[in-house]
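Field reference: "sequence" (input) and "structure" (output). Example, histidine kinase:
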Amino acid sequence: MEKYQDHLLNDIVDVGKLQEIQNKFAEATGLAAVIVDRDGRPVTEPSNFTPFCLYVRSTSEGLSRCMCSDDLGGRKAVTFQGAHVFRCHSGLTDVAAPIIVNGQYMGAFLAGQVVCADQDYDVYAEAVEKTRDLGLDREKVKETFAQLEVVPENKVKAAADLLYIMTNYIVEIGMVNIIQRQLMFQMKDKADLEKMLREAEIKALQSQINPHFLFNTLNTIARLALLEGATQTEEIVYALSDLLRHNLRNNRPMSILCNEVNYIQSYLSIQSARFGDRIGAAVDIPEELMDLQIPTMTLQPLVENAIIHGLEPKKGAGQISISAAEAQNRLLITIADTGIGIAADQVALIFDDGKKLNHHKHGQSHTTGLGIMNVHNRIQHYFGKEYGIELSGEPGKGTTARVYLPVSRKTEYPS
């Protein structure tokens, strides 16, 4: 069931209905009554409040004490699992019944403001003493106190029983409203889901291009480029074909380092055509590491990040290097660039729940952090918290991403 600790009592029960219930109770018993929220604040207008209590509440400190007393009385009633008779901060007799909806304390139904006939202490003397520092007129305190009703203990207990019944009725109203609200949310969620499915179906139909047709078209373009002597265009088209083939056909969560390196080299070929001599790239990975397992699409986001956020905004030429080594039964892949670098506080923000963060301040629209955190989180999901990505750098001196993975040549793939 939905939790309602962030909601107020009047969020789930209509205030008008609460006021009606309270007024009927006060009329039937002759007692003062009010319904308060979980902090002791009145939700309803007071019913049948005594002149004495209204006078005490006329001061800000008196009102604060009354609210605290109401709050304490309501919370104590929770432990009694029913109506609870207690003395307020001024010494009068009150009754409280907790309003608990869906396991959450929402407030209390309070009644009383009377003097119990069976009290074994001087109620008036205590009331005068406890309100002395409120700055009230002593004669008016005496006058209003004299108007308080003195009731026998059995009437207080009967009022407590009735209060408990009325409170349970309020709880039932709240539960009905919760169920109705949940049904409404479920219906809305179902409608939203059906709408999303319809939109997804349309998008799927719109994107249903046969991969073979796409690859054949690219190969045709490449052959035409060859016939026309456009060798660079031919290389780019083949590189793009390899990228698309990798993305469309590789649906496993894990790959091997060799495949990821081939993918990166195709990606770098396209970027090289775009940037020319401005960006140089070097891949230095020992052959004996090429069959190690690595999560699919681990390297590409890091290489793309290095180019877009490190090398592209740099004035002049830059270099990106990709290397790998095995040490202490861990695979370390290093992607380093000589770009504009990154500050330590920016690194901290990237790893702070993957917040979007501009890698530099040169007006680029790209953001970093999300791609890095996606790779980092996938690695830790597959292999544990001891693996993942470390990012370091210094403004003006480049950035280095280190990827730590277990050494594994197993053929099974984690889910």
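Residues 391 and 401 are 5 Å apart (CA to CA).
The first strand starts at residue 32 and ends at 37.
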